[in-house]
Amino acid sequence: MSLRPASTIGYIPANEQAGPELYARNDLDRGHQVRRRDPVWGDLATATAANHATFVYTNAAPQAGEFNQSAELWAGLENYVLN
């Protein structure tokens, strides 16, 4: 298997991507698109790698911190639906 050079794939330049500065000094929180716990299963090495793989900006969407972390709002809804 060979991979094409990044310059031929059309990656977004780093200076045009959102990063930690988007979430600094405001109420925005990184809302996971794939919930962190969901892919964390298997042997320890696999689970650890899967856990780390969810902590990327491409798996995050800006959300109001109170909404994202509230047990009654988003986190509560996730837990209710998935349990």
From TrEMBL:
It holds the Pfam family Endonuclease_NS. Keywords: Metal-binding. It comes from the Bacteria. Residues 11-83 form the DNA/RNA non-specific endonuclease/pyrophosphatase/phosphodiesterase domain. GO terms for molecular function: endonuclease activity; hydrolase activity; metal ion binding; nucleic acid binding. The active site is at H32. The keyword Metal-binding applies. Mg(2+) binds at N68. This is DNA/RNA non-specific endonuclease/pyrophosphatase/phosphodiesterase domain-containing protein. It comes from Subtercola boreus. The lineage of its organism: Bacteria, Bacillati, Actinomycetota, Actinomycetes, Micrococcales.
